[in-house]
Amino acid sequence: MNQEPNMGMQSKPAVSKWLWISLIIVIVLAAGFAAWYYLSGPGKTVATTETTTPTTTTMPTTTTAATSTTADWKTYTDKTFGYSVKYPANWLVNSTNPRQIEFRENGKTYSIEESDIYAIVIAIDDKVQAKTALELANERKANMTVGAPVVTETIVDNVKAAQIQDYLQKSMIIVNSNKRYDIVTPNFGVEEINKGVQKVYDQMISTFRFTK
């Protein structure tokens, strides 16, 4: 009796062989795709260097207008000669002569050679010749026969000015609209007084403004 060949038994090895081949091909293709995706394709990781921009802190600068220390000061305004200036709240003002405004601390007296004087004076000359503040300061320096006056050119309220300091006093000369403004503090000869008054003097100059 002839037996028919068992076709099922012979086809299993062939199916298994092609299954493994197909699986290997799929793995190779998947690996290739993954390599392309992460190395060259959209999944490529680009190394970036993060640059940290340093934060720049702008420190407040001390300007000539020391608003923090003069905020509670009073203001003297002179409409005749067109200026204003701040002075300490506990200081007194003598404005009897509009061409010579005098300031001193309340309850204090200042004297030189037994003569009572004010601590700070603003004197105005409205008949000044066509000269600059620096020229006027240098003229005064040339006329000084004692000591060695120091002249410094500066700016007060955007106007050129000149400060002259000698053994007698410290004076700021400003020329504006053909008027000469002298802001003066004497040399009292006492270091403690000079330090206190000159600090106020410098702060008052920092608040000096022309109003016309």
Provide structural commentary:
The protein is an alpha+beta fold. The longest helix has 33 residues, at 7-39. The model is unreliable at 1-11 and 45-65 (pLDDT under 50). The chain contains four helices and twelve strands. The chain folds into two domains: 11-47; 67-210, Mog1/PsbP, alpha/beta/alpha sandwich (Protein Transport Mog1p, Chain A, 3-Layer(aba) Sandwich). It has helices at residues 7-39, 67-70, 133-143, 191-207; strands at residues 74-78, 83-87, 91-97, 100-105, 110-112, 115-117, 120-125, 150-156, 159-165, 169-176, 179-186, 209-210. The chain has a seven-stranded antiparallel beta sheet with strand order 3-4-7-11-10-9-8, sandwiched between helices. It has a three-stranded antiparallel beta sheet with strand order 1-2-12.
Element layout with pairings:
Layout: H1 7-39, H2 67-70, E1 74-78, E2 83-87, E3 91-97, E4 100-105, E5 110-112, E6 115-117, E7 120-125, H3 133-143, E8 150-156, E9 159-165, E10 169-176, E11 179-186, H4 191-207, E12 209-210
Antiparallel strand pairs: 1-2, 2-12, 3-4, 4-7, 5-6, 7-11, 8-9, 9-10, 10-11
